């Protein structure tokens, strides 16, 4: 079965607003204000909670230490879990693209570096969890992307095999994951990295989700 696996943050959905709000809640609790900007710091949001905390501390607390990040990270996850879908929205055409693939007999799944429980909650809140046959998160396995094992598991749990699978993502992590697994990769250009992802030389670039079906049919011929 032909299988398309998606990254979540920055690929299927713009989650940056809620991620940054959670990080800023941590800084606010420390009396440091809101050092992260929802627009300018999108790319950092998609690199994860620790990356956001690190950037915020660099701006707001001279002399910060990694222990500060370790202390705030669980609080960030708690804040994010409480308000996970205030600003988050699917990118235009994402749901329609997934449904078209399913209607054509493709299996679809998700492989994300978001913790599995948070990913499950977000997809349920967005009303799309039942569209995906598999979901592998950062803590589902002992390793995470760019190790190929999570992608392999996402494909297999969706009912497919790596010989007829591809990954849709938005960052160098996704590109490296696909390369390590030996599958083609399509990177979106509408995420925070924009057209710069072309330098990663994926097998395809997606300027919008309208083109995904044709790309999947080309990279995974029937």
UniProtKB/TrEMBL annotation:
GO cellular component terms, semicolon-separated: cytosol
A GO molecular-function annotation: phosphoglycolate phosphatase activity
Coiled-coil annotated spans: none
EC class of the enzyme, as a word: hydrolase
Any Pfam family matching the protein: Hydrolase
Pathway in which the depicted protein is active: Organic acid metabolism; glycolate biosynthesis; glycolate from 2-phosphoglycolate: step 1/1
One GO process term, biological-process aspect: DNA repair
EC number: 3.1.3.18
Transmembrane segments: none
Gene3D superfamilies reported in the protein's UniProt record: HAD superfamily/HAD-like (3.40.50.1000), Putative phosphatase, domain 2 (1.10.150.240)
Catalysed reactions, semicolon-separated: 2-phosphoglycolate + H2O = glycolate + phosphate
Alphabetically ordered keywords of this record: Hydrolase
Highest taxon of the lineage: Bacteria
Assigned protein family: Belongs to the HAD-like hydrolase superfamily. CbbY/CbbZ/Gph/YieH family.
PANTHER family cross-referenced by the UniProt entry: PHOSPHOGLYCOLATE PHOSPHATASE (PTHR43434:SF1)
Entry protein name: phosphoglycolate phosphatase
Organism: Actibacterium naphthalenivorans
């Amino acid at each position: 079965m032909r299988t398309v696996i998606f990254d979540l943050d920055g690929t299927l959905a713009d989650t940056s607003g809620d991620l940054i709000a959670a990080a800023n809640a941590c800084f606010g609790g420390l009396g440091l204000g809101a050092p992260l900007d929802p627009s300018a710091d999108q790319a950092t949001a998609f690199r994860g909670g620790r990356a956001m905390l690190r950037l915020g501390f660099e701006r707001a607390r001279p002399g910060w230490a990694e222990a500060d990040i370790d202390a705030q990270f669980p609080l960030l996850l708690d804040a994010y879990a409480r308000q996970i879908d205030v600003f988050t929205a699917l990118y235009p055409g994402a749901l329609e693209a997934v449904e078209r693939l399913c209607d054509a007999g493709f299996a679809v799944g998700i492989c994300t570096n978001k913790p599995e429980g948070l990913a499950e909650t977000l997809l349920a809140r967005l009303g799309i969890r039942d569209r995906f046959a598999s979901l592998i998160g950062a803590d589902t396995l002992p390793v995470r992307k760019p190790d190929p094992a999570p992608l392999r598991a996402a494909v297999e749990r969706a009912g497919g095999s790596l010989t007829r699978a591809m990954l849709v993502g938005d960052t160098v992590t996704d590109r490296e994951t696909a390369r390590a697994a030996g599958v083609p990769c399509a990177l979106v250009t509408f995420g925070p990295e924009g057209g710069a992802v072309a330098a990663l030389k994926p097998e395809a670039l997606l300027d919008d989700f309208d083109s995904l079906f044709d790309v999947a049919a080309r990279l995974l011929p029937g």
